Amino acid sequence: MGSCLCGQSASTGKVIFTSAMDASHEVNYEGIGAHGHYCVPVKVEGRVIGVINLYVEEGHERTALEEDFLVSAANTLSGIIERKRMEEKLEYMANNDALTGLPNRVLFFDRLGHEIKSSTRYGYMLGVLYIDIDNFKLINDTMGHDAGDRLIKSIADRLLKSIRESDTVSRMSGDEFTVILSNVSNVNQIEIVSNKLLTALKEPYDVNGQAHTLTASIGISVFPSDSSSAGELLKHADTAMSHAKNAGKDICMLFNPEMDETLNKRIALEKELRLAIERDELVVHYQPQIDISTGRIIGAEALVRWQHPQKGLLYPDKFITIAEDTGLIIPLGEQVLYKSCKQNIAWQNEGLPPIIVAVNVSTTQISWNYDLADMVFDVLDKTKMPPGYLELEITESFCMQNVDSTVSMLHRFNARGIQVAIDDFGTGYSSLSYLKHLPFKKLKVDRSFVNEITRNQDDLTIVKTIIDMSHNLRLKVIAEGVETAEQLEILRALGCDEVQGYLFSKPVTAEKFAALLKDEGG
Q: End-to-end CA distance of the chain, in Å?
């Protein structure tokens, strides 16, 4: 008996047909006894996945027609299989996220539609969860997109392991995921799963050999109480997620109709803020900073206000968070810095005593792939203000986002003569070790410590420690929120260098601040 052999000639590349008859192919057909067969491979993407056999009577001489038939059949079958696999691949790509393999938005809506029909038929409830990873953009900006992608995969795995097989996890975009909890009996059951997901997501992740902790904000909508529409259920869950994020993050919140009204107001205010920046409706007020030993004005903190055409003067608590969440903080920050530097030069040109203008820098301004230093240098060049008259106030959390890049940026500021102060010291990381590595000139004691300094011994001890430590590091100290003469005297006794607060003046317009400077000059 011969064996069945088929392949390609190394020299010609043509299919080699082999006549064979063996025990495994002894099939008795009517009219055919002992027989042999010819075989030709079926290939897909260059790989043999099977063979086609043509059975013949023993001793039959193969003809060219038979060869052509077998090759044609093999090629046709290869094409059909390859096209089918491509269709399956394209269908998978159309319905699944490329990074995680999870269902994408398209498949999410398809499955949610099926779940709604099933729940309607059998009287079940179902929950839709909208999950947003808190501050994930900082991961990509500080650790790189490869690390971010690995984290996204880990997040997807944890979500899958925390739900039932009958439920669905989808990746909607970036760091946003959704979960469909099917066949649930009450809202409490949905909340239990949501909190389980929050706990799972908070377990430390290994990022480039370092442990990193993440939190998430989860919004929940429920069928049928919130809506019977797939689109509305997702929208309501998204709305609830936004409220969870605004409420402090790392929590889950159930949708309620009042949230829609709040969200609509927020969206409207965002649109108005965009227009306000374009229309130059932002104004800057200035609060005097006082040398505690001489009592003279030596600086001014620039504080942004929004002169709304209908609502009047709006303070930062009404719009800064929106600006940071949407990226509008970038053009807003540029306008505030430009106006402040330009105003300082205008005061000097009036012959008023030269002062330093202090401008706050938002943490968000370094998390939008944005070169803050280049922007600052550009503003100084445009306004012709000497760098020594500018002080940038940054927070502790700003410093700790990415220490290496922060150090590099601060050295660039120092090289140009720009002063840098740590704002709200003691309320953030409070790690004293970074103070000796980062080139600061000044620390600002947060008002929360100053408020109780006359009544709370702990606050008094904290302020004294900050002042002593700063002086040992050759740093100046300014205390904000000084409202009483008693607070001032305590700070003076502790050796504080500078103060600001309502005891001296509230933030005022540029014109009123100029009058304060004139009074000193007179």
A: 120
DSSP assignments along 98-161, one per residue: TTT--B-HHHHHHHHHHHHHHHHHHT-EEEEEEEEETTTHHHHHHH-HHHHHHHHHHHHHHHHH
Mean pLDDT of 503-517: 95
Q: Each residue of 169-180: pLDDT tens digit? A: 999 988 999 999
Closest CA to 394 of 406, 385, 386: 406
Q: How far apart are CA 428 and CA 400, in angstroms?
A: 10
- Burial class from Cβ neighbours inside 10 Å (0-12, 13-18, 19+) for residue 401 reads middle
Residue 9 confidence (pLDDT)? 39
- pLDDT score for 459: 87
pLDDT in tens, 442-481: 889 888 889 989 988 988 998 998 899 889 888 899 999 9
Q: Label the pairing between strands 35-44 and 312-314.
A: unpaired
Q: How far apart are alpha carbons 44 and 88 in whole angstroms?
A: 14
pTM for the full model?
Answer: 0.62
What pLDDT shows up at residue 408? Answer: 82
Q: What is the DSSP letter of 29?
A: B
Spans of all domains in the chain: 7-95, 105-255, 266-517
Angle at 453 between CA 451 and CA 458, to 5 degrees: 120
Q: How far apart are CA 184 and CA 237, in angstroms?
A: 17
Q: Write the CATH number of the domain with boundaries 266-517.
A: 3.20.20.450
3-state DSSP call for residue 23? helix
Find the farthest-apart pair of alpha carbons in the chain and give their distance in angstroms, rounded: 126
Q: Which of 332, 353, 393 shows the shortest CA–CA distance to 513? A: 353
Confidence (pLDDT) at 280: 94
Instruction: Tell me the CATH class for 7-95.
Output: alpha beta
Query: Apex CA 164: angle with CA 160 and CA 165, to 5°?
Result: 80
By residue count, the chain amounts to: 522
CA separation for the pair 388, 67 (Å, rounded): 89
As given in the structure block, the two tokens for residue 495 are 């050796």
Average pLDDT over residues 385-397: 89
pLDDT digits (tens, 9 = 90+) for 411-427: 899 999 999 998 877 65
Q: What is the 3-state secondary structure (H, E, C) of 297-332?
A: EEEEEEEEEEEECCCEEECHHHCHHHHHHHCCHHHH
CATH code that applies to domain 105-255 = 3.30.70.270
Nearest Cα residue to 470 out of 443, 490, 497: 443
Give, as one character, the DSSP assignment of residue 174: T
